[in-house]
Amino acid sequence: MAKKNEIIVRNIAIKTLQSNGIDYICITDIAKQKNSTEPKDVVKNWMRQKNTLEYLGLWEKLNNPNFKGVEFDPLLAEAGSNTFTMSPSRWIETTNAVGIKTKNGAGGGTYAQRDIAFKFANWVSVEFELYLVMEFQRLKAKEEEQLGWSAKRELSKINYRIHTDAIKSNLIPNEVTTIQASIIYAEEADVLNVAMFGMTARQWREANPGLKGNIRDYASINELICLSNMENINAVLINDGVPQGERLVKLNQIAIQQMQVLEGYSNRIFLK
After folding, report:
1. Contacts for 1 with CB less than 8 Å, ≥ 6 apart
2. Which strand ranges, in their side-by-side order, compose the sheet holding 12-19?
3. Three-state SS across 210-269?
4. How much is the CA Rg of the chain, to the nearest whole Å?
5. What pLDDT was estimated at residue 271?
6. Which residues pair with 36 in a beta bridge?
7. What is the pLDDT of residues 209-237, one digit of tens each?
8. pTM reported for the whole predicted model
9. How far apart are CA 244 and CA 230, in angstroms?
10. CA-CA distance, 194 to 184, in Å (whole number)?
């Protein structure tokens, strides 16, 4: 499934998508920089040029094992002549190209692999190309940051299961009710919250009434790494029968040490 996104370049919305691991940028949107009324014609005019087809053909030969090179050669021979015309759909159908895609309906247009899109943007406007590259790089950096955060959040959830299993096996008697058991789980979760953030989940909610989710949803990547480690360590301490108060102090010391290593300094108020 294609992943869609959008960047704003010089007040123009440029759609992007990722398909089969390849980043594509909507060159129809880029063409609006040159002709906001008929951007499709701008794309066609670019594609009918000989140097454009040379570039597109070379890209396909390097990246597409199913590229129809035999069908490409006659097109290249005709390119640049007064009677030669080329459209994205004809290019794709004739050569089995993957560097350019066409989409209909909402979010439709002609999309090109990012290097091809940058080449087109350069033809449209050198200045616009520079802004496009900068905004696209900013988008990819944001995506990578979010991916890293999500991965660490999932790791924290997995380790939380290990943590709760240790609580269930060692701290919850068989005869307690479900409500009583949930209280014990919450208390142990708050052991980690206080050790890491200096506050319980309830204290965080009271301090942040306008935020959705919980305290861990707003943790940094480094904090999630530290929390994952602490959950494993707390599970071991619970299995070893260490009292909650002793575990809290020990976990806080670990949180301080690990955050100093991860960030080079501690910027949170921990237990003293």
Report:
1. none
2. 3-9, 12-19, 22-26, 109-113, 100-103
3. CCCCCHHHHCCHHHHHHHHHHHHHHHHHHHCCCCHHHHHHHHHHHHHHHHHHHHCCCCCC
4. 28
5. 45
6. none
7. 888 888 878 888 778 778 878 888 888 88
8. 0.52
9. 14
10. 15
